[in-house]
Design brief:
Elements lengths: L1 H19 L5 H20 L11 H19 L2 H26 L26 H10 L13 H6 L1 H18 L1
Length: about 180
Amino acid sequence: MQLFKIAPNKMFQALQDLLKEEETTMGNICKCIKKALALTCQEALGLKKHHKEWLSTKTLDRIKERKNKKTAINNSRTREQVKAQAKYSEANTLVKKSIKADTQKPAQMNPLDIKAAHTDLPTDVNPPTMEEIRMAIRKIMCGKATGPDNIPAEALKSDIEVTTNTSSRYQKRRSDKM
């Protein structure tokens, strides 16, 4: 990401020379800016992937054939269109079968090296403060269905101070028992 931040700055510094020249038009400057951004994105982010990695080249070829047959249908007349439609439907079934075969391939024998996640994550074990409870009650949406406790949001919001004090006392007792 650092590369993506640095590269446009270099490109735009080169464009400053264009801005100083009086003969350059706004169209040229706009084209240069677009080109600079496109090149920067291509360098930093890489090219866009046009297909899924699990698709085989055989399937991709069949997809191209199907696309060509579809354009043949769109460009043909009535009698030719019926023949082209039959060829297209055959090509379509081949593509579907090929994709199904690609998706049902067995998993790789050498799976990627995936590191285990850290289990000792920092967790806040302190009871919530009065302000946190108050903010949580305010954020509850009114008019929604009740939860498993069958307490509607309107009941909690009717007197926020009482609800906050009650909830705070409950949370403190709960944390003292732990």
